[in-house]
Design a protein that fits this description.
six-stranded antiparallel β-barrel; alpha+beta; 12 helices; Thrombin, subunit H; 493 residues; 4 domains
Length: 493
């Protein structure tokens, strides 16, 4: 059980007093008793009142509406009895226990419509002339956006721009002389640092909660790394500021990690440095332009790093290179591990799209990869972000040779498959068993490299496998469906 400090401290005092009584009873000296009863240090909690007083006036409540088609006779014969509730509470009202399913609206966008509430959220003022930062998911799909200031005045807002990839949106109200929140530096945050949130959880305007930074650069698979805190954040807090004790914005409260839908001790905020970079582009052009180099990537495991001689399990392993894309033109190959882009080291594979995305398209930048046991520096011209290329179809199978120490039967790669998969060498797996199958290699895969040696044909592959050290794992570069990945396989003894 987790106890609050107010419960734990009295318990400690009782324990110390009991210990003191025992020492005296068994002949302890007064000095010993005094040492035993020394006060227990208590962690001081900062006073947030000044921060709140100078900040909450710049935090706004955001409510949105949407238009729905008007239905006639909601209580007419044969109608859904819950339709009346949807008339008042909106089209998403769900009756207890499921009830009768609502019929799909007829003539949506045609005929009479009415405006219904859609959602609530938070935001904060970033300029005195009415620019406000919030989350994209707060305003996405809204017909109208209304911003309420702490003085009770409500303004209709317009969308300047939004970016779903980072969940950052910039809106504006027609006002002047507003007080903007000062922008801090999220890169200076440290674990254990006090922070607080101001927002409108469940529509309760100007609610303040506080806590500490739990983690920095929390990777959840999204485009941006998050600031993790234990600040209480609930639905309606989205888009509100995360503040340090100087009253500076260090993040935008965006998500919670929860199994219940409510706060469970983990909240996530977008670092303000990244958010302001996005906001500047939205203000200038109404959209976000990102760089790309045309590779598909994955993580580098400890086993793979050891097998290919990489000093640390860091970087982004290239599984596929887009034909005629920026990386292909620079000489990047499937199986390379990108360890540095420009002057920035790629510690985790998810760092690469963030770093490249922040570079202006058309910029020429250095790219350092780990290839066959050494660093190779390339020069790449950054392209503009576009949708990923479609996945190639699976390789066909072919008849193969006898199984080897890895449990593989292989055959030459047919010319049409080489052309389709854009490979010049390698061998085609016709059967996989034993260690290879256990590692995930399957029939139809193409093996391109064994450790640091490119595979040319079945005969050479057999020689490479027979010469493997059976006391250590081997790294095989395997291509499947147009994507390449390093697979670690330990030969059978």
């Amino acid at each position: 059980m987790i106890r609050s400090a107010s419960v734990d401290r009295p318990f400690k005092r009782i324990f110390v007093a009991a210990a003191t009584a025992c020492v005296l009873a068994f002949g302890g000296t007064a000095a010993q008793a005094q040492a035993q009863s020394a006060p227990v240090p208590v962690l001081s909690v900062p006073d947030f009142t000044e921060v709140v007083a100078k900040s909450e006036g710049s935090v706004v409540n955001i409510r949105t509406t949407e238009n729905v088609a008007v239905r006639s006779s909601p209580m007419g014969p044969g109608s859904d009895p819950y339709e009346m509730f949807r008339w008042f509470f909106g089209p998403d009202f769900a009756p207890p226990g499921g009830g009768r399913q609502r019929n799909a609206p007829q003539g949506q966008g045609e005929g009479p419509q009415r405006e219904v509430p859609r959602g609530v959220g938070s935001g904060f003022i970033v300029s005195e002339d009415g620019y406000i930062l919030t989350n994209t998911h707060v305003i996405d799909g809204a017909n109208s956006i209304f911003v309420t200031l702490t003085d009770g005045k409500e303004h209709k807002a317009k969308i300047i721009g939004s970016d779903a990839r980072t969940d950052v949106a910039l809106i504006k109200i027609e006002a002047s002389g507003l007080k903007a929140l000062p922008i801090g530096d999220s890169k200076t945050l440290r674990k254990g640092q006090w922070v607080l949130a101001i927002g409108s959880p469940f529509g309760l305007e100007s609610t303040v909660t506080a806590g500490i930074v739990s983690a920095i650069n929390r990777d959840t698979g999204d485009y941006l790394p998050f600031i993790q805190t234990d600040v209480a954040v609930n639905p309606g807090n989205s888009g509100g500021p995360l503040l340090n004790l100087a009253g500076e914005v260090v993040g935008i409260n965006s998500q919670i990690v929860s199994q219940s839908g409510g706060f469970m001790g983990i909240s996530l905020a977008i670092p303000i440095d990244e958010a302001m970079r996005i906001a500047d582009q939205l203000k200038s052009t109404g959209k976000v332009t990102r760089g790309r180099i045309g590779v598909q990537i994955g993580p580098v495991s400890e086993e793979v790093a050891k097998a290919i001689g990489l000093p640390k399990a860091e970087g982004a392993m290239v599984s596929n290179v887009e034909p005629e894309g920026p990386a292909a033109e620079a000489g990047v190959m499937a199986g390379d591990v990108i360890i540095r882009f420009g002057s920035t080291a790629i510690a985790q594979w998810s760092d690469l799209p963030r770093v490249v995305g922040g570079v202006k398209p058309g910029t020429r930048e250095t790219l350092t990869v780990w290839r066959k046991g050494k660093e190779v520096t390339l020069r790449v011209k950054v392209g503009e972000f576009a949708a990923d290329a479609p996945e190639a179809e699976k390789n066909p199978t072919a008849e193969g040779t006898s199984a080897d120490a890895l449990g593989l039967k292989v055959a030459p790669v047919p010319a049409n498959v080489k052309e389709r998969e854009r490979v010049s060498g390698g061998v085609l797996v016709t059967s996989a068993s034993g260690p290879a199958a256990a590692s995930g290699i399957a029939e139809g895969d193409i093996i391109l490299t064994v450790n640091d040696t490119d595979v040319k044909d079945p005969a050479q592959f057999a020689k490479l496998v027979s010469g493997l050290d059976k006391s250590r794992a081997a790294a095989l570069l395997v291509q499947r469906g147009g994507q390449s990945q390093w697979v670690v396989v330990t030969p059978a003894k």
